[in-house]
Write a structure and sequence with these properties.
Length: 341
């Protein structure tokens, strides 16, 4: 029987004391004071925030587990400095580890990196190694624009990122390329910035030759790949104009898209354009779009419903719901095998 693995989940319902500590941390930084001690958050409180939200929706919608990370919009790497960012990332990742510890059959951890504009990647590498080795996390979220909407960081193909890629390859973990909140007033965070950043990341990878240097490096570009599948001919043509190999050889052995596309026609097009071997089921539930579609009465982010409506072979259905996630996240596969799954 196929497991239904949601590759894109965030702890958007984190306990109020955790969020209050963040506000206090930022306020303390702004006046040059040390942050307060992190609060004591009970298992019961964590359970309340999970069981009424992500866990309930997973069960209601027929999914088995989710790859779970801190709230993306709250990473806010542009807030404070590198010290603030590291403390915040560690607090968020420790909270994810506690969720996984309470519900190990349902949640698998992915970490936030303490990226800070202008900082090197040493702290991010150390935090990735800590989360993978100590907490059993299976990947990370990589922000290609930690400045929050101004795109002043080097492109993902730049050697600036290579030390992190070396660590990812050594640990055999992928990264979901995911920006955080926007501090650019011209870019709405989830409606413009997220989708634009997904598309920009793909084009950066197209322009370079990153996977020549890192043939086993793997990226998940979320939200259905941003605008990429809808302009696939443009990117095929640009690859040809830039004297790059065909996309299937140049990028698509290493780049994957999720199914966080919130209407049936969008999912239909995604599957018509992109090889299903490059698609992972994801919903980002309790995330950017939480309401019900007035045209259908169903939740916009119930993406399993859209996939169930497709005429997919059993082999493709297994790949999208389980097989691809286990292939892209080998440490997830190892944990599931250790459980006899």
């Amino acid at each position: 029987m196929t497991l239904v693995i949601d590759c894109h989940g965030h702890y958007t319902t984190a306990p109020a004391p955790h969020n209050a500590w963040r506000e206090a941390q930022v306020a303390a930084f702004e006046v040059g004071m040390p942050p307060p001690l992190y609060p004591d958050i009970s298992d019961d409180l964590i359970g309340e925030t999970i069981e009424a939200n992500q866990l309930k929706q997973l069960r209601d919608r027929g999914a088995d587990m989710t790859i779970f990370s801190p709230r993306a919009s709250a990473m806010a790497h542009y807030v404070g400095d590198a010290v603030v960012s590291l403390a915040w990332a560690q607090a968020c990742n420790n909270l994810i580890a506690r969720v996984v510890g309470l519900y190990p059959e349902v949640f698998i951890g992915v970490c936030q990196l303490p990226q800070s504009p202008g900082a090197d990647l040493a702290a991010s590498i150390a935090e990735l190694e800590r989360c993978v080795v100590e907490h059993g996390f299976v990947g990370c979220n990589l922000n290609p624009d930690p400045g929050g909407g101004h795109f002043q960081s080097p492109p993902l193909t730049d050697r600036f990122w290579y030390p992190l890629y070396d660590a990812m390859v050594a640990l055999d973990v992928p990264a979901m390329v995911h920006v955080s909140g926007s501090c650019n007033p011209g870019l709405h965070a989830t409606g413009a910035y997220y989708i634009a950043a997904d598309t920009i990341a793909f084009m950066q990878l197209l322009e370079g030759d990153l996977f020549r240097d890192f043939p086993t490096l793997r990226f998940i570009i979320p939200h259905g790949g941003g605008g990429v599948p809808y302009h696939w001919g443009r990117y095929r043509g640009l690859a040809d104009m830039l004297n790059k190999p065909p996309l299937r050889d140049h990028l698509m052995r290493n780049v994957f898209f999720d199914t966080c596309v919130y209407h049936q026609p969008g999912i239909d097009l995604l599957f018509k354009v992109i090889d299903p071997q490059n698609i992972l089921f994801g919903s980002e539930m309790v995330g950017a779009v939480r309401g019900r579609d007035p045209e259908t009465g169903e939740f916009f982010d119930d993406t399993k419903r859209y996939l169930d409506a497709l005429d997919l072979s059993p082999e493709v259905r297994h790949a999208v719901f389980e097989g691809n996630a286990r292939r892209v996240y080998p440490r997830l596969d190892a944990q599931l095998k250790a459980r006899g799954k």
